[in-house]
Design goal:
Blueprint lengths: L8 H27 L11 E10 L2 E8 L5 E8 L6 E7 L6 H8 L4 H20 L2 E2 L8 E3 L5 E3 L6 E2 L16 H4 L7 H16 L9 H10 L10 H10 L16 H4 L9 H5 L44
Antiparallel strand pairs: 1-2, 2-3, 3-4, 5-8, 6-7
Helix pairs in contact: 3-5, 5-7
Enzyme class: transferase
GO molecular function: ATP binding; cAMP-dependent protein kinase activity
Pfam families: Pkinase
């Protein structure tokens, strides 16, 4: 859906109202869950561990099967280190795999392909920001592709509810906004910077700022200098210049019109935002997999036993956690 002309004004206005109504209702639902989080009594013994899907500095993610329902889930096992116990997070399993794997296999996405994914991230951030949530960890590894070819955003470990500014240094070096690196305090605008990095990486096959050492990456980021591949369209380059904008008073998503500056940009002129939200747009790529427990779209990892402490330290202090 592009910027509205006179003949489309009423329809465009109507869709804007419906989006505002949706976001208001979504915030109401979110606050209820935020203030009264659901409790689940499932334990580690209720799941059959199948295969490691990924590893990281905080632990590993495993495919598990719920014994009673035979449903597959992704279980994130966070190592608490000091007391030799783990924290387990059970989430929906998306067998299509990470965007990262598909992007590396293909090399780079065409602009229509990248635009399809980018539009979904725009809608995701529009929703999260309406809840005062900053995501802070956008990267291809955190985007899973489902059976319809649509993306699902995962790993909200760095997400934070912030109404003003925050100062924590966190995220992936290539995706950090300049204001995070410079310890100036930052707001939701860091997510729009990261969107610019993601779109660039999807369309080029590599991020706009990369080097061997993080400090070199940071120097490139704060310089504000971006070089574009020759195959980038003029509209794409214009959008990226406005997202990868060091000056916060000029960065798209952080201006008076908010997300509208992004949604009405020429690069998104062919995007039907409502159809994307309703998942009515045909995906440019649908991953192949055999059944709900298939792991062929994930890399292989060395398996390790889960070590569980016999005695649990601080159990009394965290009894209601």
């Amino acid at each position: 859906m592009s910027a509205c002309n006179s003949s489309e004004a009423s329809a465009c206005s109507s869709s804007e109202v419906s989006v505002k109504e949706f976001l208001a209702k979504a915030k109401e639902d979110f606050l209820k869950k935020w203030e009264n989080p659901a409790q689940n009594n499932a334990g580690l013994e209720d799941f059959e561990r199948k295969k490691t899907l990924g590893t990281g500095s905080f632990g590993r993610v495993m495919l598990v099967k719920h014994k009673a329902t035979e449903q597959y889930y992704a279980m994130k096992i966070l190592d608490k280190q000091k007391d030799n116990s783990n924290l387990y997070m059970v989430m929906e399993y998306v067998p299509g795999g990470e965007m990262f794997s598909h992007l590396r296999r293909i090399g780079r996405f065409s602009e229509p392909h990248a635009r399809f994914y980018a539009a979904q991230i725009v809608l995701t951030f529009e929703y999260l920001h309406s809840l005062d949530l900053i995501y802070r960890d956008l990267k291809p590894e955190n985007l899973l592709i489902d059976h319809q070819g649509y993306i699902q955003v995962t790993d909200f470990g760095f997400a934070k509810r912030v109404k003003g500014r925050t100062w924590t240094l966190c995220g992936t070096p290539e995706y950090l906004a300049p204001e995070i690196i410079l310890s100036k305090g930052y707001n939701k605008a860091v997510d729009w910077w990261a969107l610019g990095v993601l779109i660039y990486e999807m369309a080029a096959g590599y991020p706009p700022f990369f080097a061997d050492q993080p400090i070199q990456i940071y120097e490139k980021i704060v310089s504000g200098k971006v070089r574009f591949p020759s195959h980038f369209s003029s509209d794409l380059k214009d959008l990226l210049r406005n997202l990868l904008q060091v000056d916060l008073t000029k960065r798209f998503g952080n201006l008076k019109n908010g997300v509208s500056d992004i949604k009405t940009h020429k690069w998104f002129a062919t995007t039907d935002w409502i159809a994307i939200y309703q998942r009515k747009v045909e995906a440019p790529f649908i991953p192949k997999f055999r059944g709900s427990g298939d792991t062929s779209n994930f890399d292989d990892y060395e398996e390790e036993e889960i070590r569980v402490s016999i005695t649990e330290k601080c159990s009394k202090e965290f009894s209601e956690f």
